[in-house]
Specification:
With 257 residues, the chain is mainly alpha-helical. It contains eight helices and two strands, in the order αααββααααα.
Length: 257
């Protein structure tokens, strides 16, 4: 008769589950569509626990044994949380490209004062920013990018094995690079609106000098809003398509999944 050692079972499986939950739970806090503020914390926790249960048996041989000292245990858990927050921050930076693009569009199209509740940020945002952020979340689940992100989360264990060394410097450099690249992409996506705003305000400046007694700002505001909405309707498909390509390039190429 085979006798199970309950102490060995608990020290192995429970510790492995906590190791997985430390990293995957940190990712789920920032996961698009799941880590939003309007999602109940209990739902996020259940989702993270289910993924950990599915990965427990395949990942068990790759996880380190239970450390003998509390300091080593804290170091292991801290490393897993750091890796999870690092990847979640990268995803948020990539998704935030459209939020920045919407902010610029709102300013150049005269819609910066027309705000609505942005569920992604849980705050008031200009209409283009809220629209593009909501469209990005919808595209993530429509195109299957949520599965891609989950596979990328699992691929983190190849790039950052459990119990590895803290690479804070490399992580910081990666975050800085992705932030810089995301801001650059956001400016590029909003380039048509920046050109429209530059031409419009240059024309208004010349006309204002020729007719100083006319309130051109009030006259041109409907033209500015109409032009911005027209350009947005013509370019929204290209903006979202280019963002999807950047999403794949920034995350898929980095982790090679």
């Amino acid at each position: 008769m085979h006798i199970y050692d309950i102490n060995a079972f608990l020290s192995g499986h429970v510790f492995a589950f906590l190791m997985l939950l430390a990293r995957i739970g940190a990712v789920m806090m920032l996961f698009p569509g799941i880590g939003e503020t309007y999602v109940p914390p209990r739902t996020r926790m259940v989702f993270a626990c289910l993924i950990c249960l599915l990965l427990l048996e395949p990942m068990l041989p790759r996880l380190p044994p239970l450390p003998t000292s509390p300091a080593a245990l804290v170091q292991l858990i801290g490393y897993e949380v750091l890796v999870g927050v690092f990847f979640g921050t990268l995803v948020r930076l990539v998704v935030g490209v459209l939020e920045a693009t919407g902010m610029i569009i709102g300013i150049t199209a005269g819609l910066s004062n027309a705000t609505m509740m942005n569920p992604a940020l849980a705050t008031q945002s200009p209409l283009p920013s809220a629209f593009l952020s909501t469209a990005a979340l919808a595209l993530i689940f429509i195109t299957g990018l949520d599965h891609f992100l989950i596979r990328t989360t699992i691929a983190l264990y190849d790039a950052f094995p459990p119990g590895g060394a803290f690479m804070v410097g490399d992580m910081a450099q990666t975050v800085i690079h992705v932030t810089n690249q995301s801001f650059k992409i956001g400016i590029e996506l909003s380039a048509p609106f920046l050109i429209m705003g530059l031409l419009l305000y240059a024309t208004m400046g010349i006309l204002q000098r020729l007719m100083p007694n006319v309130q051109l700002f009030l006259i041109m505001m409907p033209v500015e809003i109409w032009g911005g909405l027209t350009i947005l309707s013509l370019t929204v498909a290209g903006i979202l398509t280019f963002w999807l390509r950047y999403f794949d390039q920034a995350l898929g190429t980095f982790f090679q999944v």
